[in-house]
Amino acid sequence: MKHRxxxxxxxxxxxxxxxxxxxxxxxxxxxxxxxxxxxNYGFDHNWTLHMETKQGLKSFYLGQDVKFCNRILQMTPSxxxxxxxxAEITTEAGNKKLAKFIxxxxxxxxxxNFQNLQPWDLxxx
Length: 125
Prior knowledge:
Helix content: 25-40%
Structural class: alpha+beta
Shape: globular
Number of helices: 3
Largest sheet: 3 strands, antiparallel
Strand order of the largest sheet: 3-4-5
Order of helices and strands: EEEEEHHH
Strand content: 35-45%
Mean pLDDT: 78
Number of strands: 5
């Protein structure tokens, strides 16, 4: 996990020199993830998960929204909406909630390690 390092400077009261102290503050950098939603003919919605990993940006094609929810998450779409607290997944906030929920659910329930996956491994087609 990456950590940010902050440099703090303090002035010695007996001297005009600045004593530099380096203090490591362990603040995990939050992972960024979004769901790209593509629509074909206005009927289906295909999802692609884009996420930052230790190796950089990775993308995973998830397939049709309803199929992915039912087959991979083993939940109905309405259960997913209830779990993330919004049905507005086209907004930035709702989209990030959906992406975070998918990642956490796959990690917890299915013990998915995203580092070892191919872009098509999560597809519900």
